């Protein structure tokens, strides 16, 4: 009790001292008040000070309101103004004290951890998903403090040195963060022709350290990051931390820039999504490759990847109906999902995890891994339901419906889509409703196709669901859902034999899928266009769409690439080698516009790979 009383007296005296000094003109700035509060109030007793300050503020306000003597009222008013200044600066000082306390706790936690755990603890401390994350300056202060505790060549010293080098590299890179976009007017994505142009090559010229420069050049050339990481024999923890600082601040800087470009048709959320996914994939590759050197680097890389995905899952534009193929090109992104799902197995059952699993499930379906996709979606469904994330729950019901169609389990597909439709209407989730209508209609079309007694009315009712979904997606301005609607309508018209309507919808679906950057839907629509054109004996168009579809689906490792490859093999046999090559050559420029020269040149190799598999 006596301690509490003495502290109370001390803080009241501090308030009186500041007020008196302000009235006497000894304090002339808010900064002086701030410094006095930092020195005078301890972190763990801030609540007591805040309570006393509030009482003094209220009593002084009452005095101002009730005082009749003008001189006394004027003095009370000046005192009230001084107390309000104290209140404002106290909020600032409190934040500083919290930061100091957090910093002290972080230093204590890192330095008292076992050496093999210090890197993981450091990453948890600087995780940007915290409520009040450390900024770069504070991370540098943390590194300097760690250096004071560190022995020569210890993990602590390596971490501290890595932060210092990484921060210096980032400061050199900052002004070149988006300069490459203006050098390449054709595209501002991460794809393009490998070599000395583009983001990675630009950034490689700015860093002065061997490891990050070599990594950036590997990415610029679209070479294997895994193989690159496995070759690093003179690699230490300082190198890893330096790259971690550089990559994370590049990623955040790009996302911030893209998020501020809502009216730029080339940028905006589309490239924010691409940035999150690109860097998550890079970290997943580093995790695999660096495990060949030491598990500690592999585990740390997976930890960073999961932190990125967690941040991404909380963004408004997180693609509940998209996959890992937004605005991507480049061979180093292929098979990424094999590495992305591993750390999620040990993550807590949170809303963020449900959303990440939804993303992975869509992508697994695109690759033809249907059982694995259902596993992701069922797990996400349960987590989302428990977390109260209704939109995510509805999305996974829709994804499960679509996956069941791929497995030809049409009754189950209809059941999932009906549940999604009911829940979406109950909760007002219009995007979920549009997708549910499409999935219900699509499932009904595929069911009717299997029945010998299916009537025109049966198909008409199913197609009506699809048209409702399309209309709703257009009203919402939801490009991803619109692409799926148009694609499903095209396939439905394909099934009922209305080829011209099928082509019209599939071509619109392809163009829309290009806008949302979904390579899977692009490839799928092209593959179906090839079949429809073939049925109409429009063989040159079938060659064009089939080759493009085959290439795009192969690029994302989808098993579906063999479907257009099989059709192309038949076409080649029917047309003969010369006519087939003529058809291919006549569409060369249009194909290069979509997949580049390297993509066009790879088409004969793909056809040869398919022929050898037969």
Fold blueprint:
Layout: H1 2-23, H2 30-40, H3 46-66, H4 70-111, H5 118-125, H6 136-149, H7 155-173, H8 179-183, H9 199-204, H10 210-220, H11 225-230, H12 237-259, H13 269-290, H14 295-313, H15 337-340, H16 351-366, H17 370-387, H18 390-406, H19 410-427, H20 430-450, H21 456-476, H22 479-495, H23 499-516, H24 519-535, H25 539-555, H26 562-575, H27 577-586, H28 588-613
Written description of the protein model:
This protein has 614 residues and is mostly helical. The chain has helices at 2-23, 30-40, 46-66, 70-111, 118-125, 136-149, 155-173, 179-183, 199-204, 210-220, 225-230, 237-259, 269-290, 295-313, 337-340, 351-366, 370-387, 390-406, 410-427, 430-450, 456-476, 479-495, 499-516, 519-535, 539-555, 562-575, 577-586, 588-613. Helix 17 (370-387) packs antiparallel against helix 18 (390-406) and helix 20 (430-450) packs antiparallel against helix 21 (456-476). The model is unreliable at 185-189 and 325-341 (pLDDT under 50).
Which structural traits does this protein have?
single chain; 614 residues; mainly alpha
Task: Offer a concise description of the structure.
This protein has 28 helices and no strands.
Mean of residue pLDDT?
Answer: 85
Q: Please mark out the parts with pLDDT under 50 across 5 or more consecutive residues, or reply none.
A: 185-189, 325-341
Beta content comes to under 5%
- Give the helix level as a range of percent: over 70%
Shape: globular
Sheet with the most strands, sense and barrel status: none
Helix-strand pattern:
HHHHHHHHHHHHHHHHHHHHHHHHHHHH
């Amino acid at each position: 009790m006596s301690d509490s009383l003495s502290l109370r007296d001390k803080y009241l005296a501090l308030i009186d001292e500041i007020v008196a000094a302000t009235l006497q003109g000894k304090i002339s700035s808010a900064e002086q008040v701030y410094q006095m509060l930092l020195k005078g109030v301890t972190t763990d007793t801030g609540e007591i000070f805040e309570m006393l300050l509030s009482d003094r503020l209220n009593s002084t306000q009452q005095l101002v309101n009730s005082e009749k003597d003008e001189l006394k009222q004027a003095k009370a008013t000046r005192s009230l103004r001084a107390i309000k200044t104290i209140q404002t600066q106290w909020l600032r000082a409190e934040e500083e004290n919290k930061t100091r306390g957090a910093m002290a706790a972080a230093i204590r936690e890192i330095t008292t951890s076992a050496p093999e755990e210090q890197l993981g603890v450091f990453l948890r401390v600087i995780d940007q998903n915290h409520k009040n994350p450390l900024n770069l300056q504070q991370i540098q202060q943390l590194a300097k403090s760690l250096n004071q505790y560190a022995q020569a060549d210890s993990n602590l010293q390596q971490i501290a040195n890595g932060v210092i080098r990484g921060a210096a590299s980032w400061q050199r890179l900052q002004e070149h963060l988006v300069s490459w976009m203006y050098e390449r007017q054709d595209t501002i994505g991460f794809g393009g022709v490998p070599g000395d142009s583009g983001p990675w090559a630009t950034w490689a010229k700015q860093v002065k350290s061997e490891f990050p420069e070599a990594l950036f050049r590997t990415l610029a050339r679209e070479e294997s990051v895994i193989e690159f990481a496995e070759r690093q024999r003179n690699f230490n923890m300082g190198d890893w931390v330096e790259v971690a600082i550089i990559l994370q601040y590049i990623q955040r800087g790009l996302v911030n820039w893209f998020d501020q470009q809502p009216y730029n048709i080339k940028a905006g959320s589309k490239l924010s999504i691409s940035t999150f996914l690109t860097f998550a994939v890079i970290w997943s590759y580093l995790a695999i490759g660096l495990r060949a050197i030491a598990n500690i680097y592999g585990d740390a890389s997976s930890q960073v990847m999961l932190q990125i995905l967690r941040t991404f899952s909380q963004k408004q534009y997180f693609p509940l109906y998209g996959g890992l193929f937004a605005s991507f090109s480049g061979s180093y992104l292929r098979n990424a999902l094999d590495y992305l799902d591993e750390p999620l197995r040990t993550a807590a059952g949170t809303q963020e995890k449900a959303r990440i699993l939804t993303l992975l499930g869509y992508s697994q379906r695109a690759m033809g891994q249907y059982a694995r996709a259902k596993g992701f979606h069922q797990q996400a469904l349960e987590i989302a339901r428990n977390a109260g994330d209704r939109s995510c729950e509805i999305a996974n019901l829709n994804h499960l419906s679509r996956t069941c169609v791929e497995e030809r389990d049409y009754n189950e597909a209809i059941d999932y889509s009906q549940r999604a439709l009911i829940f979406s209407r109950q909760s007002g989730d219009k995007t979920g409703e549009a997708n549910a209508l499409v999935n219900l209609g699509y499932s009904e079309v595929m069911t009717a196709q299997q029945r010998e007694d299916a009537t025109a009315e049966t198909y008409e009712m199913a197609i009506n669901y699809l048209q409702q979904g399309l209309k709703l997606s257009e009203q919402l301005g939801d490009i991803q859902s619109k692409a799926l609607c148009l694609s499903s309508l095209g396939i439905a018209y394909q099934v009922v034999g209305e080829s011209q309507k099928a082509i019209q919808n599939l071509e619109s679906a392809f163009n829309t899928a290009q806008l949302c950057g979904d390579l899977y839907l692009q490839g799928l629509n092209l593959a179906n266009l090839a079949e429809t054109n073939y049925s109409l004996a429009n063989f040159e168009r079938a060659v064009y769409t089939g080759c493009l579809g085959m290439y795009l689906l192969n690029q994302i490792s989808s098993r579906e690439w063999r479907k257009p490859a099989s059709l192309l093999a038949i076409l080649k046999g029917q047309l003969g080698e010369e006519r087939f090559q003529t058809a291919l050559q006549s569409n060369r420029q249009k194909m290069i516009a979509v997949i580049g020269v390297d993509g066009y040149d790879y088409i004969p190799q793909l056809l040869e790979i398919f022929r050898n598999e037969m």
